[in-house]
Amino acid sequence: MFRRTRIVRRVLVVGLSLALLAGLSVGVARAEEVRFGVLTSLSGPLGTEGKPCFETIQWTVEEINKFGGPLGMPIKLFVADTATDVERGITGARKLITMDRVINIIGPSSSIVVAIMKFCADNEVPIISHWSGSTRLTTSGGEYQFRTCPDDYFEGEVAARFMWDEGFRKAAVITLDTEDTISISDALKKRFAAMGGEVVVDEMVVGGQTTYRTAARKVLAKRPDVLFPAIDLDTLKIVYRELYEMGITFTVVLASNAVQQATMDIVGADILEGVYGEKPANALGSPGYAIFEQKYREHMEDGMVGWFTPNMYDAVNLMALAVEVAGEATGKGISENIRKVANSPGIKVYSYAEGLAHLLRGHEINYEGASGSCDFDEFGNVLGYARIQQAKGGQWVDIKFYSSEDLAEAIR
Amino acid sequence: MLTILLQHTVFGIVTGSILLLATIGFSMIYTTKRFLCISHGELLTIGAYTTYIFHVFLGWNLLYSGVIGVVITSLVGLAIARGLYEPMERHGPLVLLFTSVGVTFCLHGILEFIAGPSIRSFRTPILPSIRVGGIPLITMNEIVIISIAMGSIVFLHVVLTRTRIGKAFRAMASNVDLAMARGIDTARISMFVWIYASAMAAVAGILLALVTSVNPDLGWTQILIILAAAILGGLGSIYGVMIGAILLGVVMDVGVIFFPSGYRAAIAFALMIIVLLVKPKGIFGGE
């Protein structure tokens, strides 16, 4: 009996020692790397756009790691695909934070940001999104939630202004019932009405249906000057085809969600010819954009800069620079220091390398990115750029460009 | 209002035609195997993707690609039945039901993994609707869909009433033990059912993708509607589910005149509940 107890004790001691050693070794491994969490759409409705954004994170991190990484430690990426689905986004965030012990979350879309922001704040893990424009985040972030794309209000303003300037006075709006699309649609309706326009049809639709004929019929019956479908690509494929079959007699301006290169293949370039689309733009012509564009072409097979990739590039650089300034690889450190690298005062820097060089010399920096100036307001928002594009010969061609300065009055 | 009703009724018939093709196989499996084969919906997706591969990647004509897609899906359906369902048959319908739920999740996951993020569509021209009295009523694609569904009904009717295998199927559906006692090769009939049901699912998937898009959720979102159509028509009644599917399609699409399109599924299930309250065995009272 005594002998058995002794054996059990020995086994326990050896087991606990091994567990302790294993724990220490994991701890050491964690201390030697900076754990970045990527929670983004690699599949689902935003998957097509999400892929180049994800590749951009990978090469941006590679570039940062070439300089030793923040605080001399390489960044290690932990990835979870949201499939552009809220439930999967929540599961992914839980896994990244509790199991992978990441210090930040990069890349979720609007509906997922809204769903996980409290959980992330409770765990002191900042979120930075390159494409969450939802107006629900306009006054709700700031401490643990940031974004490098402009608010949807900006997109709504741009679309409304373009429609008004083109002489359209009666608009029909079809809105998909998701966070992102409702947000843009609401902004457009509000701004178009404020300009004196009339929304003659305001139809909400649910995704995943095999037909949207009711919505199409209502739009056709009211004979609007212009239709603004704030819907994703999946839904546009059916809605636009049904409208086309029934006979489109008005101009169409697509909300950014469905303005993708894939739209031409999915819906059909021939039937989309002449259709307009609004889309966030970048700081074209700025030093930050020029540096980004060169790097992008070096790393990506398809040299055409993907939508939201500059915003993603800026998000990663800002996070890495914030860790450097914080002096510790923690979410709290990032949260408290990200404005110190993004906002003025400070020497304007246009890349991670430049920023790091100044920080090592003890200078204050002001990161000016490829997507824009990246100056966070108290709620973690940035101002930005937007453009109107038109489908011509199977391509989206820029026809009008709006900067935050152009719309500053309206945005205020 | 009459115009609107007419337009929605026509599209309801289109929806019902696709549903009919998907539900026939589901009902045939239930009739002979006595379990709800939930994984049937995933065969719609497999049919659409295999066709897409031949049509878009290899550049084949859509018709030939569709035929290959149907053949491959039939073989996949048969392989799943032989490998998973038939060994489980001795454990009863509940175990088979849960196995089919598991198969559904596995197939859906595999399809998502292989197919990747992109939404895809067949390369078919989009043409304006044919107008009748100035009303855009129906497109060529929709005429093709209705024709294929009607052709399938006639074909199945001929098979069931004029061929030995059809008669054997009906005998087996009526009483398996008696059919075996009379020397009917039930294993051969089972094989016929799995192949035919999978083929019909593939055709339904291809046609559904033609009017929507090719995506991993194609069949996933249809299985509950298939179940509703089968129950509405009368589980076990092949002809009943045909009527049930068309009826459900029309009611769903006419219903969206009065309710938002997001409530299509709710309309389907409300109709199913109302029918079950009046006729618990479905309209044509199979089981």
How far the N terminus sits from the C terminus of chain A, by CA atoms, comes to 81 Å
- Report the order of strands and helices of chain B: HHHHEEHHHHHHH
Mean pLDDT of chain A: 88
List the uncertain runs of chain A.
18-30
Globally, the shape of chain A reads globular
> What is the percentage of strand-forming residues of chain B?
under 5%
Q: State the helicity of chain A in percent bands.
A: 40-55%
Could you say what the CATH topology of chain B is called? ABC transporter involved in vitamin B12 uptake, BtuC
Helix and strand content put the structural class of chain A at alpha/beta
- CATH topology call of the largest domain in chain A: Rossmann fold
Please work out how many helical segments of chain B DSSP would assign: 11
Major sheet attributes of chain A = 7 strands, mixed
Quantity of strands of chain B, as a count: 2
Radius of gyration of chain A: 24 Å
Provide the β-strand percentage band of chain A.
15-25%
The mean pLDDT of chain B is 90
Strand order of the largest sheet of chain A: 7-6-8-9-10-13-14
Largest sheet of chain B: 2 strands, antiparallel
Termini Cα gap of chain B: 39 Å
